[in-house]
Amino acid sequence: MKHARTLNAIEILELIFHYLTQVSVLRDYDDIINVLADMGRALTSSDRCTVWIVSDDKKTIWTKVAHGMDAIELDINSGVVGNAITKGEKVIIDDVYQDSRFNPDIDKITGYVTKSMMVVPMYDNDNQIIGAFQVINHRGEKGVFEERDMERLMLATTYAAETIVSARLANEIEATQREVIFTMGAIGESRSKETGNHVKRVAEYSYLLAIAYGLDPKEAELLKQASPMHDIGKVAIPDAILNKPGPFNEHEREIMNTHAELGYSMLKKSERSLIKAAATVAYEHHEKWDGTGYPNGLAGEDIHLFGRITALADVFDALGSDRCYKKAWDDEKIFALFKEERGKHFDPKLVDLFFENLDQFLEIRERFKDEF
Ligand code: C2E
Ligand code: SIN
Ligand code: SIN
Ligand code: SIN
Ligand code: FE
Ligand code: FE
Fold first, then answer.
1. How far is residue 175's CA from residue 45's CA, in Å, rounded to a whole number?
2. Domain coordinates in residue numbering, the chain
3. Distance, C-alpha 268 to centroid of its chain
């Protein structure tokens, strides 16, 4: 293959276009960084390209992508890369073994012989250091890097920095969203004097049932995050009803039952998969397998699996807990009810999975038990 240095401007553009076309169809940020490392290598005619990332505590650097070696972590104050990162300097070295900054440990481990090296620090939009692009061993006759190789590596570095910044932003937004949803769910519960641990347990039980049912872990995780929202509609129920210390009359019961539809109305407008799942759970967690539930009297598999699962998780937790209107039930009574309601209130398959995995349910209950 021709060295990139001998390519004319059009050929270089073609090369860049080749890699950015690959990037444009990728959704996974790690895959994108991988292609950009390939681009950095091709544009500089180097033998290897490594993308280094500064750790959160800023004490180490680790390899996000590396040609020809496993992921490793180094002290941020060691080596050429660490030096470039801490000083914020671009580096070109013709022979690293003549350079006191070089840390030969990696060569010793991999058996690879590093000679020439070029390092470009990578910054985010606020000029905070993210990491560095490093290329090793120029493939040309002299085997050393030049200033114009540096300019090309900076191109790959710039794209990579943008990718990393967007990935972090996306993670941040998702984390915030999860937190907001969880908090909203907890507020819905706390007004009715149920503990924050109730929503945590319901989330864990739901995840366990989803996995046991055979959903893939991504779907199960979605349900786990959405199920704490099942009673969000309770925020709109008057206190006098919500916290009534005894059994409901018919009128109160009717009002309370609106919490399912209310929760759904609050969430249904969203396009986000997490909020959509939460809307489904809020809407359908009081439907019953035999069609006698509310608000819509759905039956069997017309009830979304997320609703069926949350129903079981919610009732298991509600029965085992003190409420303003009742004392906690003991386990034998709860199990008897589940057996009785198998195929009536609950999806029979889910009841079976509940009993098959009972130890894990009890373990979760113990782990997240209410402290008084
Ligand atoms: P929750 O307390 O979280 O209960 C959730 C579900 O667990 C109930 O849905 C019901 O299916 C089941 N469950 C809870 N405790 C019992 C019980 O002692 N016996 C039986 N057989 N099932 C029980 P449900 O019935 O649709 O109630 C929805 C929500 O309405 C309850 O959420 C609670 O906040 C409220 N609620 C229901 N009944 C009463 C009541 O008599 N008095 C008061 N103050 N609130 C009630
Ligand atoms: C290259 O860009 O040098 C080849 C891509 C690869 O095999 O990683
Ligand atoms: C160094 O940064 O000095 C060593 C890193 C490497 O050899 O890849
Ligand atoms: C799901 O996999 O999201 C649930 C499908 C169903 O409603 O049964
Ligand atoms: Fe409810
Ligand atoms: Fe609940």
1. 40
2. 4-171, 176-367
3. 23
372 residues of the chain, pLDDT tens digit each: 567 777 777 787 788 878 888 887 777 778 888 898 999 999 999 999 999 999 989 999 999 888 888 888 999 999 999 999 999 999 999 999 999 999 999 899 889 999 999 999 999 888 899 999 999 999 998 999 999 899 889 988 888 888 888 888 887 777 777 777 777 766 666 565 566 688 889 999 999 999 999 999 999 999 999 998 898 888 788 888 988 999 999 999 999 999 999 989 888 888 778 889 999 999 999 999 999 999 999 999 999 999 999 999 999 999 998 888 899 999 999 999 999 999 999 999 999 999 999 999 999 999 998 876
How far is residue 3 from each of residues 7, 45, 143, 238, 294, measured CA to CA in Å? 7, 6, 11, 74, 70
Cβ–Cβ < 8 Å for 16, 155: yes
- Asked whether 289 and 348 are in contact (CB, 8 A), the reply is yes
Q: Which ligand is nearest to the CA of 136?
A: 3
Residue 2 three-state SS: coil
Rounded distance from Cα 81 to ligand 3 centre (Å): 6
CATH topology of domain 4-171: Beta-Lactamase (3.30.450)
Residues with CB under 6 A from ligand 1: 192, 244, 247-248, 256, 286, 314-315, 318-319, 323-326
- Smallest Cα–Cα separation from 50: which of 73, 20, 83? 73
Topology alike, domains 4-171 and 176-367: no
Q: Work out the widest C-alpha separation in the chain, in whole angstroms.
A: 90
CATH code of the domain made up of 176-367 = 1.10.3210.10
For residue 93, the ligand closest to its alpha carbon is 3
